[in-house]
Write a structure and sequence with these properties.
By secondary structure, this protein is mainly alpha-helical. About 60% of the residues lie in helices and about 5% in strands. Helix 14 packs across helix 15. The relative contact order is 0.10. The structure holds arginine.
C-alpha cells in the first residue's frame, strides 16, 4: 500500500495514496479536454506574475515555451496522461516541471480551485459559441426546406387532431423561433461565464500582490467596452456552479425542442401521414422486416433529450447540500457538462442533416389539407361577419358538422337549404369559406400563417440567417 507521497501536495503525508484511491479520485480521464484552456490560463497567470515581479521575464518565457511544447504534444496525441497526477492541472504542471525549473513558481498565488473554475469558464464560452453555430446550421437547413416547399399547405394539429390549415413554412418557422431562443440562451450562458475567478485562490485569495484585472484581460474576460470582469467574491468564485447548471439547462431545453421536432418528423414519416420522406442516410432498416425504413435518428434525438435532462438533474443535485466552499464532490460536475455538450452538438448536426435531406410529399399534404372540416372555424367567422355572436356561430357550425357526418358528405357538399335551416345567416356564398386560398389570405395578422405574413417571415429569417 505504501507509495511515494504525491508530488504536488505530498509534503505533509508520510504514506502514498492507495492505488484504489488513485483510480477512484482521478479526473484526468475526462478533464484532460480542458488542457487548451488550462494552458491559456497558466500563460495568462504567469504573464501576470512576471508583470507584478513575482517571477522574472525569463522565467515567464521559459514557462510559456514549456507550455507550448506540452500543448503541441497533447494535440499530437503524444502526451502521457497519468492517473497518479489526478487531474489535467497537475498532469500539465508535472510535465512542465520536467521541462523547466521555473515551473515550480507557476502555482504561485493560485489554487486548483480557482484554476478549474477559470478553465471551465473559458470552456463554457467556447462551448456556447460552438453550439450557437450548430443551431445556426439547423436553422439554415430548416429555412432551405421551407423555401423549397414555399407553397405547400399542411393541416396544423392540436391534440394530434387536424385543426386548421397552415403553410408548411409556418410550421417550420415555429422551429426557427424555438431554436433562436435556444441560441439566445447559450449567449446568455456565455455572458454569465464571462467573469474571471483567477486570484480567488483556494478560498480567500492571496497575500501576494497580484493583478487580477491583468489576468482577466489577458484571458478575454472583458465587457463590451473591454473592461476586465473579475469575480467579486473569492468564496463564491470557487464554489459557484451556476454556470454549469445554466449550460446543461440550455442543452436540456434545446433537447426538448429537437425532441419535439423529431416527434413531428416521426409522425409525418409514418404511413398514416406520409407527409415526408426522410433521407435514407439518417434511417435504418429492420433485420427482420424487409419493408421497414425506420426513423432511428429521430428516435435517438428523443432519447438524447432524456439523457440531457438527466445531466441537468445531476448538476442540480450535486451542489445543493454542499457547505461553502469547494468540496471534492464538485469534481463530478464535469462529466455531465461534457456529455451534454457532445450530445447536443451531435444531435444538432444530425438534425441539420435530416432536414437537409428531407423531401415533402406534396400530394399527401394536399390531400390532408383538402379536408373542409379544417375550415369549420372559418365558417363560424363567416357567421360572425354576418353579425352572429361567436358562441351562437360556433354552435350552428357544430350542427352543420354533425349533419354532414350524419349524411356522410364532406362539409362543403351540404345543400344551402340544409344549412339555412340550421342558421338563417347562411347565404349562397357560405361555401366560399372553404376556398383554401381565400381562407389563408384572411389570416393577415402578425404571427399568423397567411401568405403575406409567411412571406414577411421568410424575409425576417433570410436576413437573420444570412
Ligand atoms: N480536479 C479537481 C476538480 O475538478 C480540481 C480541484 C481540486 N481541488 C482540491 N482542493 N482538491 O474539482
Amino acid at each position: 500500500m505504501a507509495k511515494k507521497a504525491q508530488a504536488t501536495w505530498g509534503g505533509r503525508f508520510s504514506e502514498g495514496t492507495a492505488e484504489l484511491m488513485l483510480r477512484f479520485s482521478e479526473s484526468v480521464s475526462f478533464d484532460r479536454r480542458l488542457a487548451p484552456f488550462d494552458i491559456r490560463g497558466s500563460k495568462a497567470h504567469s504573464a501576470m506574475l512576471a508583470r507584478v515581479g513575482l517571477i522574472t521575464d525569463a522565467e515567464c518565457k521559459a514557462i510559456h515555451d514549456g507550455l507550448d511544447v506540452i500543448l503541441a504534444r497533447i494535440e499530437a496525441g503524444k502526451f502521457k496522461w497519468e492517473a497518479k497526477f489526478e487531474d489535467v492541472h497537475m498532469n500539465i504542471e508535472q510535465a512542465l516541471t520536467r521541462l523547466v525549473p521555473a515551473a515550480a513558481k507557476l502555482h504561485t498565488a493560485r489554487s486548483r480551485n480557482d484554476q478549474v473554475a477559470t478553465d471551465m469558464r473559458l470552456y463554457f464560452k467556447a462551448a456556447c459559441a460552438d453550439l450557437i453555430q450548430r443551431i445556426d446550421g439547423v436553422q439554415r437547413a430548416i429555412l432551405a426546406l421551407a423555401d423549397k416547399y414555399r407553397d405547400v399547405l399542411v393541416p396544423g394539429y392540436t391534440h394530434l387532431q387536424r385543426a386548421q390549415p397552415v403553410f408548411l413554412a409556418h410550421h417550420l418557422f415555429a422551429y426557427l423561433e424555438m431554436l433562436q431562443r435556444d441560441a439566445e440562451r447559450f449567449s446568455a450562458v456565455a455572458d454569465h461565464a464571462n467573469w474571471c475567478p483567477l486570484g480567488s485562490g483556494a478560498i480567500a485569495g492571496t497575500t501576494l500582490p497580484i493583478d487580477r484585472e491583468f489576468t482577466a484581460r489577458a484571458l478575454g474576460f472583458v465587457d463590451a467596452r473591454g473592461r476586465a470582469r473579475v469575480t467579486r467574491n473569492s468564496m463564491d468564485a470557487v464554489s459557484d456552479r451556476d454556470t454549469f447548471i445554466e449550460f446543461v439547462s440550455a442543452c436540456a431545453l434545446t433537447g426538448v425542442h429537437f425532441s419535439r421536432m423529431a416527434e413531428d418528423l416521426i409522425l409525418w414519416a409514418s404511413q398514416e401521414f406520409k407527409f415526408v420522406e426522410l433521407p435514407d442516410a439518417f434511417c435504418t432498416g429492420s433485420s427482420l422486416m424487409p419493408q421497414k425504413k425506420n426513423p432511428d435518428s429521430m428516435e435517438l434525438l428523443r432519447g438524447k433529450s432524456a439523457r440531457l435532462q438527466g445531466n441537468l438533474h445531476t448538476l442540480l443535485v450535486l451542489p445543493k447540500g454542499l457547505p461553502l466552499t469547494y468540496n471534492r464532490d464538485l469534481q463530478e460536475d464535469k462529466p455531465p457538462v461534457f456529455d451534454s455538450h457532445d450530445q447536443t452538438a451531435l444531435s444538432l448536426e444530425v438534425l441539420a442533416g435530416t432536414f437537409a435531406g428531407t423531401e415533402i410529399i406534396r400530394e399527401k399534404c394536399a390531400a390532408a389539407v383538402a379536408d373542409p372540416a379544417l375550415l369549420a372555424t372559418d365558417l363560424a367567422d363567416y357567421l360572425v361577419r354576418a353579425g352572429v355572436a361567436f358562441r351562437d356561430a360556433h354552435h350552428a357550425v357544430g350542427a352543420v358538422v354533425k349533419l354532414a357526418e350524419r349524411n356522410s358528405v364532406p362539409l362543403d357538399r351540404l345543400a344551402l337549404a340544409d344549412v339555412e335551416q340550421i342558421h338563417p345567416a347562411f347565404k349562397p356564398d357560405w361555401v366560399d369559406s372553404f376556398d383554401l386560398a381565400k381562407a389563408m389570405a384572411r389570416r393577415k395578422g402578425t404571427g399568423m400563417p397567411g401568405p403575406a405574413q409567411v412571406a414577411r417571415q421568410f424575409r425576417h429569417w433570410e436576413k437573420l440567417l444570412g
